[in-house]
Design a protein that fits this description.
The chain has 9 helices and 18 strands. It is an alpha+beta fold. The strands form 4 sheets. The chain has a 6-stranded antiparallel barrel. Strands 14-15-16-18-17 form a 5-stranded mixed beta sheet, with helices on both faces. Strands 7-8-13-12 form a 4-stranded antiparallel beta sheet. Helix 2 crosses helix 3, helix 6 packs parallel to helix 7 and helix 8 runs antiparallel to helix 9. The N and C termini lie far apart (112 Å).
Length: 426
């Protein structure tokens, strides 16, 4: 079955008739990333200009008689439209399909661009494209080679692609009988019926594809190969085509302006200024860590210098200078053994009560095993302990005071209630 959208990728409106309509629900992710539970109807029409998901290309969006079409899936020789509507559609009813053309144009540019890029990698380096992914902001092809592709090779393919775009090579769709052309039949879905579609780029390639495509390479506008990365035994080449190139350029320029303002220097100086900033941060952090160790040492020595009779039964210390576990380790290495310790280090005050951090208890094994799990529960953490030591990662400091109160109650002197003396007989 060849749908109307595959016959004419630029058709924006189309009248057709309803074949069936069944109540359905759909978990749909909106542009903000929120998953919404929608109610509506799965509608099958005699034909459609809304492309059903397939061939690595997401489905089209649009409307059916003014109601939003949120999903389109191929089922055998039919396309099932999920229509967000409070009412069903009678079989035989004539309806108007309207295409979200901006989404379609974007998908066509990326898909036809992928065909062009894959063909050029095959022609120049004999690298086969094993799969591809059309993302929301960038796409990639997966090439069957273990060798990382250099920037020079990416630039070569990019120049060739843009040269062909400027030439305006024709892109056409041919319908072939799979039985007459068996080289294509191996790639068809098991439930495919009828003729197979072959997308042909003039003088470049012919490849079977169910997706929607431009009719001329000039409609791609331009191609930009972003980068290549090794994934297991293959190479992924990331790219953007057409309007996405302009969007990416706008994003990059905006970040460049923000960096210029933050670093107090122009784009040509950004790298040097960032490297100097990194060196300064590294030096400052090293000095800060040394100060923390000095502070930990001073606190431990202060306790050590106290006469044993004046030493507290328990000691709490909570630092919000960052998750510096070395501070705790330094302190405990020098602190007196007989005191019970409750220590935390966490993110800065700016993180609020939801700051993440690290907690350590050390002391009487029975008390440690009793309080450790309780503290982790209050501080929304995970951890474990043994032999008088308990530690874990914590995620919320809002109930730190509750932990303190539990600790104080543990060491608070217990009241002794004397038993009543029996009354003497007369």
């Amino acid at each position: 079955m060849v749908f109307k959208c595959q016959e004419d990728s630029f058709l924006k409106q189309f009248k057709t008739k309803v074949v069936s309509s069944e109540y359905a629900t759909l978990d749909w992710t909106n542009s903000a990333g929120q998953v919404l539970s929608l109610k509506g109807f799965n509608v099958i029409c005699e034909d459609t200009i809304l492309f059903p998901e397939g061939g690595g290309q997401p489905c089209d969006y649009g409307t059916l008689d003014g109601f939003s079409v949120r999903n389109v899936q191929r089922k055998g020789t039919t396309a099932v439209h999920f229509v967000e509507s409070p009412q069903s559609f009678d079989a035989g009813l004539e309806v108007l399909l309207v295409l979200d053309f901006q989404r379609r144009l974007d998908h066509m540019q990326q898909h036809s661009g992928q065909h062009l890029i894959s063909a050029l990698f095959d022609r120049e380096f004999k690298y086969d494209t094993t799969s591809w992914f059309l993302g929301s902001s960038a796409s990639y092809i997966q090439l069957s080679t273990p060798h990382l592709i250099s920037r020079e090779s990416l630039d070569l393919i990019e120049r060739q692609a843009n040269d062909l775009i400027r030439e305006g090579r024709e892109v056409s769709v041919l319908l072939v009988d799979p039985e007459v052309a068996p080289e294509f039949s191996k790639k068809l879905p098991k439930d495919h019926e009828g003729l197979a579609r072959v997308v042909r780029i003039e003088g470049i390639e012919s490849n079977m594809c169910c997706g929607t495509h431009v009719t001329n390479l000039s409609q791609l506008q331009c191609v930009k190969l972003l980068y290549a990365e090794k994934v297991k035994t293959n190479i992924n080449v990331h790219f953007v085509v057409g309007e996405r190139v302009l969007t990416k350029l706008g994003e990059v320029f905006q970040r460049e302006q923000q960096l210029t303002q933050a670093l107090k220097g122009g784009p040509a100086q950004h790298l040097d200024l960032l490297q100097k900033l990194q060196q300064n941060v590294k030096g400052t952090r090293k000095s800060f860590q040394q100060l923390l160790k000095d502070f930990a040492t001073a606190e431990a020595e202060r306790l050590e210098d106290l006469p044993k009779k004046e030493r507290p039964k328990y000691f709490c210390l909570h630092r919000r200078d960052g998750i510096e576990v070395d501070f705790i380790n330094t302190f405990l290495r020098l602190a007196p053994e007989e005191i019970f310790y409750f220590l935390t280090v966490s993110e800065g005050v700016s993180a609020g009560s939801s700051a993440k951090g690290h907690m350590v208890l050390r002391g009487n094994p029975e008390i440690v095993q009793q309080l450790g799990p309780q503290f982790l529960d209050l501080l929304e953490g995970k951890g474990n302990g043994k032999e008088g030591s308990f530690q874990g990662k914590i995620n919320n400091l809002a109930k730190l005071q509750d932990c303190q109160e539990l600790l104080e109650a543990q060491f608070k002197p217990k009241k002794i209630v004397e038993a009543a003396q029996p009354a003497s007989g007369s």
